[in-house]
Amino acid sequence: MHQNKSVTEFILLGLTQDPMKQKMVFIIFLVFYTGTVVGNLLIIVTIKFSRSLGSPMYFFLFYLSLADICFSTSIAPRLLADALSEKKVISYNECMMQVFALHIFGCMEIFVLILMAADRYVAICKPLRYPTIMRRQVCIILIIFAWIGSFIHSIAQIVLALKLPFCGPNLIDHYCCDLQPLLKLACMDTYVINLLLVSNSGAICSSSFLLLMISYFVILHSLRNHSAEGRKKALSTCTSHITVVILFFGPCIFMYTRPPTTFPMDKLVAVFYTIGTPFLNPLIYTLRNAEVKNAVRKLWHIKIASKSK
Predict the structure, then answer these.
(1) Secondary structure of residue 261 in the 3-state scheme
(2) Cα–Cα separations (whole angstroms), residue 296 to 60, 112, 288, 291
(3) Which pLDDT does position 308 carry in this prediction?
(4) Membrane-spanning residues where (predicted)?
């Protein structure tokens, strides 16, 4: 760690300083976080124990839900605790761990969304070769690469964060530790580090978003040749995927592809992709997906039937 570091802890200013509003923040985010964990756990359990959801799309959805739970857990519990406490202190090491967790699971979400788009592309544009291309072993290897890629990205963020010397003040104008708010506190010229941050996180967000939008455009374009029934099913799946992609990447691109300036809406935008998207994902994927809904119903019927015996 950096030798000039004299700051051993930071104070998170959170979303608001008003005690009344803090109680509201606590209630709202407790509902969101509980919904995120329950919703995503429901998807994980359903996919794990349901025979009808064995396709690669659900294999990837399993990991998206897992990343969602971990991603929001790296932020929400801390935010909830801070909303009720007088002094919102986070130690230097905890802060660095939060940066690491935020980026490894956030990056994992990005990679899984790309894999889901690739899966839909092969399923719709190359249906005959789909079983050979998207074999189980291939899907497992792709997920392993996604974890490795996320880990490398997160390590790069941590290396940048550890290079920053902090000699006071130690007030972070945010509800979690991330590189942008930390750059403002560093007692050094952060121009180069911000450039590296934009070229790392910013490039991952922008290029992934572009790649995803192009792939979905190609998929939707190729649906012209499908039957009405096939087109309807594929459209339903793709629109839910596109919704998730826009909700997640819009705020990410806004946060990570710009010079180190602060906007008043920064925290709200961050709330959207750190708390909002993990909460909405299970809703979007289950409400728009008949297979998942049926599998959930079947599972609970089996559970209730076995209990009543």
Answers:
(1) coil
(2) 17, 22, 13, 9
(3) 65
(4) 24-45, 57-76, 96-118, 138-162, 201-223, 235-256, 268-287
Give the integer Cα–Cα distance in Å for 219 and 121: 6
Cβ 240 vs Cβ 293: under 8 Å: no
- For residue 296, is pLDDT > 90? no
Q: Describe the strand order of the beta sheet including 171-172 as a list of residue ranges.
A: 89-91, 9-12, 171-172
CATH of the domain at 100: 1.20.1070.10
**Domain count across the chain:** 1
Single-letter amino acid, residue 49: F
Helix (H), strand (E) at residue 60 = helix 56-73
Question: Within the chain, how many helices (H) and strands (E) appear?
Answer: 13, 3
In a domain, 252, yes or no: yes
Per-residue confidence (pLDDT) for residue 129, from 0 to 100: 93
**Phi and psi, residue 129, nearest 5°:** -95, -5
Residue 1 within a domain: no
Q: What is the C-alpha to C-alpha distance for residues 37 and 264, in angstroms, rounded to an integer?
A: 29
- Render pLDDT for 96-110 as a digit per residue (tens, 0 to 9): 999 999 999 999 999
pLDDT at 1 (0 to 100): 42
Length of the chain: 309
Cβ-contact 98, 28 below 8 angstroms: no
Per-residue pLDDT, 64: 94
Return the structure tokens found at 171.
């007030």
How far is Cα 89 from Cα 83, in angstroms, rounded to an integer?
12
Q: At 62, list the tokens.
A: 């399993």
